[in-house]
Design a protein that fits this description.
heterodimer, A: six-stranded mixed barrel, B: alpha/beta
Chain lengths: 424, 237
């Protein structure tokens, strides 16, 4: 019977072409929009993870509470020991220490007088420890616009826009003015070894990046760090895994009231990213739902018109001894076949378009010039395994639902009335 | 089954709702048909011929009285049982052939065998045999649109006969055919009637058809006005 129905679908273009086109368009759009949404949100999440949150982050409880103020006076101490523990307990996570700090950059002229100043958002990374993977993680090498990555103490790289604003270049000296973790003033002069452009306006306009050993010395934080960031080995954020690791770690410190005890926070609980993650899932589900409803309505209508056109066929089949239930079930089976064909075509086209947007993306750099949000300037889609089957949900469901609804009319019609359509 | 009625109609009345009233299409019909009969129901348009065939074919049910086909009371059958009765025992031939246009001649004839869940090798044998009966073995792969009127009706006969039904109901089967094709079609059906002992029941007002019938039942205004056995002068038919 399936072979028989399949021949009908292939040979009767009126029966199959329009529904296949509708399903193909719907499935293509579902996949493309879902992939694009996942790509954009994924990039935002990925960028936040690399620059700020990690997949999980360990801080002191007090630091975590006020972390927006970069309260290095509440930073973790004895971090090497904590890192050893983390590396042994969670070997499938790469752990790095970072210090974030804020202060003023002063640019002196040849006489030592100030010729320019600007507020700086500092980030201290394990630049000298190549095994940390920080240079690759933040893509510093390829983000360098000029110069080199710091190779010795006292060197720094700054955002390219920041460098332009301060009118400084490679080899120029800048003095950081800020406070240590103990609250006393601190000054340290750095030589600019390079300028970077990350494509994130907030970083490019005011960042200074130095090695963590310089920061520990400058901020009086020997064996201290504001944040210990963990990155899952797969390189992609896995919410379930991150929450599980955090839960396991935090259980050790459950019963302590010490506000300097370490606390692990997964990415979703930082920077309001939980709502972003939920938006991604929510919007993906919404796309599917909207397409299922819209396509079902169109296919219902198409099914009704097709059903009217095929009353003669149903009459003949009744006369040949097929019962109405069997005709109805064969309609549904036919809908599944058509839905599957449309879904396969739509999935292939959708995946190809998603791949194209993943490779080339859409440049929104000009729109982001004044933005302080940490988000990429090229919006790209992301090809994920779920996109390979996502389109089949609206594709199959809408077609079957549409045909089931239109078929009810035929099913309820009196046999003799249906049969009389033969004479029309 | 010899000399036993395979179709029995007892006091059958059929009414259809029309506006606020009713239209009586058949009034207290009493008839019986034996296995192997070659009979026709003759009458003007609106006399109730097609309604009677529809009830015998279990496509409709009586308002009053009984129609018993192959021992089954039509009024007591569910949709599924009606379909089974048609599928197993009844073949239909229509005025306008009503072949499924997207399927080939072979597939059109094969369809009712698929419904009976007969295996592919057996189906092929049966379809080719049916096409041989009507002389269309060479046209198995053609689409209905490529056939002449006579060929189309012969495919319809093959489709009705392929499952070797006990009863064939033919509603004005020659209405769209020229005289030559009409005679050829009737001769084919007459041969099958003799060979397979299938009961043929025609609805017609075509004299060409009537000349082949062994029994003619005249209907007028929903009533049987005459039930006549015909004796043919030559045995060629």
């Amino acid at each position: 019977m399936i072979k028989f129905l399949f021949y009908g679908i292939l040979r009767d273009k009126n029966r199959s072409l329009l529904p296949i086109i509708i399903i193909t368009i719907g499935v293509t759009l579902t996949i493309l929009l879902s992939g694009f949404l996942k790509g954009i949100m994924g990039d935002i999440i990925d960028q936040n993870a690399r620059f700020d949150t990690g997949h999980v982050k360990v801080m002191s409880r007090a630091y975590a509470r006020d972390k927006d103020q970069l309260p290095n006076d509440l930073a973790l101490l004895g971090v090497n020991e904590i890192l050893d523990t983390l590396r042994s307990e969670f070997p499938k996570v790469q752990w790095v220490k970072r210090i974030r700090f804020g202060g003023l950059l002063d640019v002196p002229d040849s006489t030592g007088e100030t010729r320019g100043q600007g507020p700086a958002s500092g980030m201290a990374l394990e630049l000298f420890n190549r095994k940390s993977g920080e240079i690759e993680r933040l893509n510093i090498e390829s983000s360098l616009k000029q110069g080199l990555i710091p190779r010795k103490k006292g060197e720094a790289i700054i955002g390219s826009d920041f460098a332009e604003k301060l009118k400084i270049g490679i080899g120029d000296k800048v003095t950081y003015v800020g406070s240590t973790m103990n609250g006393s003033m601190t000054f340290m002069t750095f030589t600019i070894s390079g300028t970077v452009k990350f494509g994130a306006a907030s970083m490019d306009k005011g960042a200074i990046i130095i090695d963590i050993s310089d920061a520990q010395q400058m901020l009086d934080m020997q064996d201290g760090a504001g944040e210990l960031l963990g990155f899952l080995d797969e390189g992609v954020y896995d919410d379930e895994k991150a929450q599980q690791i955090s839960h396991e770690f935090n259980q050790h410190y459950n019963d302590t009231a010490d506000e300097f005890a370490p606390l692990m926070v997964p990415l979703r609980d930082q920077n309001n990213l939980a709502s972003y993650l939920d938006y991604v899932d929510g919007f993906a589900a919404l796309f599917v739902f909207v397409f299922v409803v819209a396509m079902s309505l169109v296919l219902w209508n198409t099914g009704l018109l097709g059903g009217l056109r095929r009353y003669q066929e149903y009459g003949i089949r009744l006369a040949l001894g097929e019962d109405k239930g069997h005709i109805y079930r064969s309609m549904v089976l036919e809908a599944i076949l058509i839905g599957a064909i449309g879904s396969v075509i739509g999935t292939i086209i959708g995946l190809l378009l998603t791949l194209y947007l993943q490779v080339y993306g859409i440049d929104i750099g000009s729109m982001m010039s004044n933005s302080t949000m940490m988000m990429p300037t090229v919006m790209r889609s992301r090809l994920t395994p779920s996109l390979f089957y996502l389109g089949f949900i609206p594709g199959l469901f809408a077609m079957v639902l549409g045909n089931m609804l239109s078929g009810i009319g035929i099913y309820k019609r009196e046999t003799a009335t249906l049969f009389k359509e033969l004479e029309v | 089954m010899a000399n036993e009625n395979i179709i029995t109609i007892k006091n059958l009345t059929k009414r259809f709702p029309v506006g606020n009233g009713e239209f009586t299409a058949l009034k207290e019909i009493n008839l019986g048909f034996e296995k192997g009969e070659f009979a026709g129901i003759v009458g003007p348009s609106g006399s109730g011929k097609t309604t009677l065939l529809n009830i015998i074919g279990s496509l409709d049910s009586p308002s009053e009285g009984q129609a018993i086909v192959m021992g089954k009371r039509i009024s007591e059958l569910s949709h599924k049982e009606s379909a089974m009765l048609r599928n197993k025992y009844i073949g239909f031939i229509f005025q306008v052939y009503n072949l499924l246009p997207v399927y080939t001649v072979y597939e059109n004839v094969e369809f009712s065998l698929i419904l009976q869940k007969i295996g592919a090798p057996e189906r092929k044998k049966m379809v080719m045999e049916a096409l041989e009966w009507v002389g269309l073995q060479d046209m198995a792969n053609k689409k209905p649109s490529k056939l002449s009127g006579g060929e189309g009706q012969r495919v319809a006969i093959a489709r009705a006969m392929v499952k070797k039904p006990m009863i064939v109901l033919a509603d004005e089967p020659t209405a769209n055919l020229d005289a030559k094709n009409a005679h050829a079609i009737m001769q084919t059906m007459k041969n099958l009637n003799k060979e397979l002992k299938t009961t043929f029941l025609f609805s017609t007002h075509d004299e060409k058809v009537m000349s082949y019938l062994d029994r003619i039942i005249y209907l007028d205004d929903g009533k049987v006005v005459k039930d006549e056995m015909i004796t043919h002068k030559t045995e060629s038919r």
